[in-house]
Amino acid sequence: TETTAPAADDKGSDKKIVLGFSQIGAESGWRDAETQSIKDTFGSDAQFELKFSDAQQKQENQIKAIRTFISQKVDAIALAPVVESGWETVLEEAKAANIPVFLLDRTVKVSDESLYTSFIGSDFVLEGQNAAKTMMELLGADKKVNIVELQGTVGASAANDRQKGFQEIVDGNPNYKIIKSQTGDFTRAKGKEVMEAFLKSDGKNIQAVYAHNDDMALGAIQAIEEYGLKPGTDIFVVSVDGIKPAFEAIRDGKLNVTVECNPLLGPQLKQAILDFKEGKTLEKWIKSDEDVYFGQKAIDALPNRLY
Ligand code: GYE
């Protein structure tokens, strides 16, 4: 009888699944946590090989990376798209090469939904709504509140939809008004800079800050302190993400609320790729479960935060 083991290649048993991941950059604590999650998940699983590319915030670099992945004939592409528009051509190229594309954490606007396999990420409209609702709940819906908004990267789905959801709720209450809105590019440094300008022009007229991510809120908190006011008391601050430094700021009374957004997407991405390989039908949107944190609940949760 035959006892010879089949050549490894026959069964494909030691042929790795090659994943190309085009990451946006390293603008926030949230993104660093996501990068780590992807590296941990795929680095610790011998069936996979990860090709990681950092776009340094530039869409053109992401498009180049995807083209490189296509020419390397990777088995799957993961893309965290810095902005929503401008992806049609390169996604068509991936589709023509039969390579599935998984959108990670931000979405794209395309006329043909078959240009990507699944979007794995959060409901940003809901996050924006939750930020506004919690602000009204804690400050009182009948109080007059002038809000300044620190927006995320211009053209990013996370910025567009967080603004949309928040605005929807604010529009339903004549006491609440967004008086200034500007991008802080999801970074702490820019968040601080923009907040300084807001304080300079509107100072005592600002009752609340809505930041599209925690890093910008942390920058704004610094600006408020340097201006001589107390963040969390004189000016209410709410942001999105739920990174550890945000929980610490809540504990210290400087941040009022953080709306959670899960960056630990590695395991879900891995499952999606394996399901796809087995021919299973995937959800078009693989959503994360998320919470809203403030007060004692945030303090209690701090020791167990994973990012
Ligand atoms: O909220 C922000 C990051 O795309 C959901 O990007 C992500 C956002 C996140 O830089 O901190």
TrEMBL record:
InterPro entries of this UniProt entry? Peripla_BP_I, SBP_2_dom
List, alphabetically, the SUPFAM superfamilies matched: Periplasmic binding protein-like I
Q: Which GO terms describe its cellular component?
A: cell envelope
GO MF terms on file? carbohydrate binding
Entry-linked Pfam families: Peripla_BP_4
Q: What are the record keywords, sorted?
A: Signal, Sugar transport, Transport
> What is the superkingdom listed in this entry's lineage?
Bacteria
Record PROSITE patterns = PROKAR_LIPOPROTEIN
Question: Taking every annotated instance into account, which residue ranges of this chain make up the domain Periplasmic binding protein?
Answer: 21-259
* Subcellular localization: Cell envelope
Instruction: Indicate the principal place this protein occupies in or around the cell.
Output: other
Entry similarity comment: Belongs to the bacterial solute-binding protein 2 family.
- Protein name, per record: Simple sugar transport system substrate-binding protein
The protein's organism comes out as Paenibacillus endophyticus
